[in-house]
Amino acid sequence: MANRLRTRLHVPHPPARPGDRTDFSYLKLQPAGAQPRPDVKLPAQATLPLASGLVRVLDDEHRAVGAWDPHVEPEVLQAGLRHMLLTRIFDERMQPTQRQGRISLYMRPYREEAVSVAQAMALRPGDMLFPSYRNQGLYMVRGRPLVDLMCQLLSNTRDMCKGRQLPVMYHWRQGKIFSISGNLATQFPQAVGWAMAAAIKGEDHVAATWIGEGSSAEGDFHAGMVFAEVYQAPVLLNIVNNQWAISTFQGFAGGERSTFAARGPGYGVAGIRVDGNDVLAVYQASSEARKRALAGAVSYHERNKYSTKNTRCQYFFSIATLFTNACRRDRIRRSRFRTLWTFRAILRPSCGKHTECATCCRTEERDDAGIDYRRSRVYRDCAGEPVGRGRPSCACIG
Ligand SMILES: Cc1ncc(C[n+]2csc(CCOP(=O)(O)OP(=O)(O)O)c2C)c(N)n1
Ligand SMILES: [Mg+2]
Question: Which pTM was predicted?
Answer without folding.
Answer: 0.80
